[in-house]
Amino acid sequence: MSFELLLALLLPVAAISGWWVAKRNTVQSTGGGGRSELSAEYFTGLNYLLNEQPDKAVDVFVKMLEVDSETVETHLALGNLFRRRGEGDRAIRIHQNLIARPTLTKEQRAQALLELGKDYMRAGFLDRAENLFLELVDDRFHRASALDHLSDIYQQEKDWEKAILTARKIEAETGKRMSALSAQFCCELADIAASRGEKKLALKTLKRALGYDKNCVRANILAGQIEKDSGNYKAAIRAYKQVEHQDPTFASEVIEPLFACHQALGMMDEMENYLRHVLSHLGGTSALLALAQIVCMQRGEYAAAQTIIQYLKNKPSVKGLDRLIEYNLVGSEGSARENLQILKDLTSKLVDRYPVYKCDTCGFTGKTLHWQCPTCRTWNSTKPIQGIEGE
Ligand SMILES: [Zn+2]
Question: How far is ligand 1, taken at its centre, from the CA of residue 161, in Å?
Fold first, then answer.
C-alpha cells in the first residue's frame, strides 16, 4: 500500500466520518432512519486495502456508490490512483460503474467518461478509448482534453489524416498553434506515399505540409530525396537549398545529398561556391569537410588540410581535427606518421562516441534524426548538435 493511496483514502474517510457524526446527531434528535452503515462500509473497504486485498476493497466501494452517489469524487480519485499504479482493470471497473449510475450529473458523467477513456488508453484499448473521446468532443465538458487524447490515439495508430483533422479542431477549440504538427503529419503521409513509389502524391503532400508550416525543413529534405532518387537533380537541389533559409541549424543535413546531386550533374564549382557561402554565413563542420573534399579532389591533401586549418583556428571541432589528421597522414613517414596515427585513432573514437542529434525538450541524444523524439514523444524537438563536439 503506497502512502499516496493511503492518504487519498483517509481524506474522504475523515470527511465522511465528520458527515456521519453530524448525521447521527440529526438522527438522534429526530429519531428517523440512519445511514450509519455508509461509514461502516467505508471502514470495511479501507481495512481490505490496508490488508492488501484491493479487489475486495473495490467491491465494497463500488457497492457503497449504490448507496450514495455523493462519493463520486472519491471513486474518481480512487480509480485514477489505481490507473497510476498500473492497476488498469480496477480503474476500469470503478469508472465503468460510475458511468452506469443514472444519478450522476452531466459533468460528473463526462469526468468519468474522460477517466475511463484514459484507462482504456493505458490498457491499450485504443478503439474503445477513441469512441469515448469522440462522445466527449460533442459534449461541452472536457472537449479540449478529449481532442488532445484523440490526437494521441491517431498518432499511435499512425492515422495521419485523422491526426491532421484533430489538430485543426484543437487549434479552433483552444487557439493553440498546431500548424507545425500538422506539417509533420503531412510528412508522415508523404513518407508512406514515397515508400509505395507514389512520387507525385508524396510531393503533393509535402506541398501541403509547407502550406501548414513554411519552415518545415522535413518537407524539403524529403522532397529533395524523392527528386534525387528519381534522378531529378536540379529539382532536388532547389528543395535542399530551401533548408538553410527555413532553419539554419539543419543546413548540415543537406550538405551530403547536395554534394551528390552536384557531382551527378558535374557542377562541382557551383557546389564549392555554395559551401563557401554556407561556411561564411552559417559555419558548420559538414560544410567544411565537404569543401575540403572538393579541394582535395582538385589540389590534393595538402591544400585540403590548409582549408581545414584556416577554419579550425576560429571554430574548433573534433570532426574537423579528425579529418585534418587524416589528410596529414598522407605523405607522412616514420615516427611522425606513428604519432599521427595515435592521434587519429583517438579523434575517430571521439567522433564515433559523440551523438549527432539532441532533443531540446528532454535532452535525448542519438545518431539518428527523429522528427518525433522517441523518449518524450515531442515533435520537431530534435536537432543537430552544434559546437566543438558537433557541427
Ligand atoms: Zn525528447
Answer: 24
